[in-house]
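pls read this protein:
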Amino acid sequence: MPRVVTLPPEIEDHRDHHWRREGSRLVQTAADAERFVEEVGMAACLTDARRPGPSLYVAVCGRRDAVLPRNVQTDHEASHAWVLKDEVIARGRVYYAKLARGKAMFLAPRLVPHFNAVWGVRRADEASRLSPAARQILKVLRREWEMASADLRSDAGIADRAAFTRAMDELQAAMLMVPCAVYYQPKFTYIWTLAIARFPDQLRKRVNLAVARKEIARAFLAGAGLTVPGELARVSGLTRPEAGLGNRALVAEGSAVMEGPGRYRWKGAEGC
C-alpha cells in the first residue's frame, strides 16, 4: 500500500484553491472545465482523492475528500463529470487523450508542445517507433481525417479487438490521434481525428527537452504548492529522474526551493 504523505495545512489550502477542491470554485459547465484545465495545465478525468494531482471529478465535487462510489453509473457527480468530459472533447479547446502510461488526461494548449517534446513521435520516426497495427490505423486516419472506432478498425484490417485497442492507445500516447466526439446512439462510439488537425500550431512547435520537463514541472508545482517524492512522475507520466530534472530546473531559476530529497516547494505558495 502506498505510504500516506501528510502535507502542511497551507499546502492543502493552496491545492483546494488551485485544484478547485472547494465549493465556491467547483466546476459546473464545460466552460468551467476548460478554465480549470487552463489554470492547472494538466488534469485527470475521473480520478479521486486517492490519486495525486488535479482531477475533473474532484473539481466537479468541489471537495478534497471526494471518492468515486462503487457504482459510478448511478452517481450524479461522476455522471456529470463524464458528461462534461464529452462536451469538452466536442468543443476541442483543450487537449484530451490517453497519454503516457495510459493516463486519460486533459492538457491546456500551452502544455501541448511540452508533452509532445517528451512523448511525441515525428513522422520520420514512425516506422521505427510505432507498431505495424498503429501505422496502419494512422494511414487510414490520414486518408479519412475523421472516423468512428468500428469503421477505423474495419478499414485498418485489424481483426483482433485487443490488438486494435493497444494500437489506439499507442497512437494517443504518441500524440498523433485524439477523440473529437462521443456518440451514444445508435450505439456508443468515439469519433477519432488526427491530433495535429485540432492543435496544429502547438504540435508543430519545437521545444527543447529540458525546457519541456521544466514547464511540465512548473504547471504541476504552481498548482500543488509542494511536491513530494514521486508525485510529479505519477501525475504527469514523466519518469522520476525526468521529474527531478524538471523540478531542479525550477530551483535553478528561482521559482522553487528544494526542502529535501524529492521535495520541492513553489515560491508562490504560502509559507515559502
Remarks:
- The chain has a mean pLDDT of 94.
- The chain has three domains: 9-107, 115-204, 209-266.
- The chain is about 50% helix and 15% strand.
